[in-house]
Amino acid sequence: MELFEAIKSRRSIRRYTSDPVDDKKVEAILEAGRWAPSWANTQCWRFIVIRDPEIKAKVADTLTKIKLPDKVVDNPGAASIKTVPVVIVVCAEIGKSGSKPGPGGGGEYVTDKGDWFMFDTALAVQNMVLAAHTLGLGTVIIGAFDAVQAEKVLGVPEGYRVVILFPVGVPAQEGKTPPRKELSEITVRDRWGK
Ligand SMILES: Cc1cc2nc3c(=O)[nH]c(=O)nc-3n(C[C@H](O)[C@H](O)[C@H](O)COP(=O)(O)O)c2cc1C
Questions:
Q1: Model-level pTM?
Q2: Architecture of domain 3-170
Q3: FRET pair for 5, CA 20 to 30 Å: which of 47, 55, 133, 155?
């Protein structure tokens, strides 16, 4: 699949068939994440591949409800986590991305944004969900969950945080296409307000 087609046709998938996802495909997805760019090539990301149904169920229980203006609803991604064959959890080593490299520099951040771990892991995640899509697999990025609880369930060591997770499976639905803002709404030429 051509890159622009993959970018445009990828959708969040929240229902999956029971078809298995083989290790070769999981490996290819992880490989796409591994080649993402990162701050000074620090590669703070770490990936946890979950196939164990009990662990998947415990991770599913960490997903939080979502507050809408008029009601509170279950996370729409929750149902898929227990039944999908594979869940990939993306963690980050804290204090590496965005900081000065070398002896004495570690932990001192270079920019006013501090730790860039959210940015670097997001780049890896986008690579991975696009790779999954080109392999005919569906994903949905899940951010609304109790990360501290997920860290306990997954035994994540000190110095690392769970950032995001996504199920990987054979789609059992066509994703709906939420509209995007027009380029004219989101692009400024030369200088804001000109
Ligand atoms: C950082 C982030 C967190 C998200 N968290 C959730 C979530 O907790 N549950 C869910 O069902 N979808 C979640 N999504 C998926 C978005 O709702 C979805 O990407 C968006 O509506 C656009 O749809 P599309 O992916 O089909 O283009 C998340 C997406 C991102 C980028």
A1: 0.96
A2: 3-Layer(aba) Sandwich (3.40)
A3: 47
